Sequence to fold (349 residues):
Amino acid sequence: MCVTRRDFIKTTGVLGACALCCLPGFSQRSKFSAEPYTCEDELPTKFQLDVCTICQLNCVQCPTRQIRDENNHYGYMRFKDFKKFVDTNRVTAVELSSKGEIFLNPELLDIIKYAHKKNIILTAYSGVNGNDISDDVAEALVKYQIRDIQFSIDGASQEIYSLYRIGGDFDKVIANIKKINALKTKYNSEFPKMTWKYIMFGHNVCDMVKAKQMADELGMSMYYSTNNIPDYSPLTKKDHNFIKKVTKKEKYFLGFKTDLDVVKSEVCNTLFNVPQISYNGQLLGCCCNNYSFYKANAFETDLMTVLNNPDYLYSKRMITGQVPDDTSNPCSRCFAYKNMKKKGSFICA
Ligand code: SF4
Ligand code: SF4
Fold:
């Protein structure tokens, strides 16, 4: 395991540590280094694997539709690819991040079981719609201790929920959550912890109180976010005052397009420490990359080569403000990078 120079000096009190840099496992790499990796110990061990880009819903502002449609990028991660990836690399945790719905991957059960066998922590925190969860998979979520699942449910009734989640069935989602809760009781398990993510629109503020009550009854925590595109079903000043009362927060998450600090600390940072890989091995970088792929494939090439892809390193340098914008780079099209550039506020390398 790598020890950073700072950690080494802290634990040993040795300031002149330069002579020790060549020892195995010693790395001077900083958290947001945009330098190429030089040894396997430096590589990340946590990944976001996009296990399925297919979705049964047609949400009004689906953020992932663009990259899927532009590249005809529809599919799911095969178990054999997942197995090869985790067998070949040092993997400690996987976020089942998805540009579609993870539960539509027909090999998800095998993926969950194998991850458990390899002691890999699984989460699905970036969001599921939860409309279709088979009994087998629901049981596996509990039995194999998936840590967190975040359900995107923007309403407390079919009428309101389906205004945005087109094609979604509110009752089916709630039934699936109850099914998981019954299994948690059966297995006496605290996992998976479940969160109700509520994107607040002008049209669903009316359901917020009921949603909170239902979440409490279902043992779920609430996560509120505003809509990323404020022109669609906008919130009025009156809505904002009401939201502050319901959420009991003066400030709440304003969505990735508005809250640059959050996107920098929770999304851009993943380029360095939790890279995202698509279902077929293509490197995506971060979960907000809805623009284009890096020309690197983690199922065909070794991880060090993949993560040392020149365009990928250039992205890291762009978002740390070390190099100018390159319009062919995925980050160049991203709202977060545009915002950073405008404000001159980059990630601190
Ligand atoms: S559930 Fe997610 S992936 Fe599916 S259409 Fe809605 S926003 Fe897009
Ligand atoms: S600038 Fe955008 S695409 Fe690039 S790492 Fe940050 S959020 Fe991802």
In short: Confidence is low (pLDDT under 50) at residues 1-26. The first strand starts at residue 3 and ends at 4. The chain has 14 helices and eleven strands. Residues 263, 267-268, 271, 285-286, 288-289, 315, 319, 330-331, 334, 336-337 surround iron/sulfur cluster (ligand 2) (CB under 6 Å).
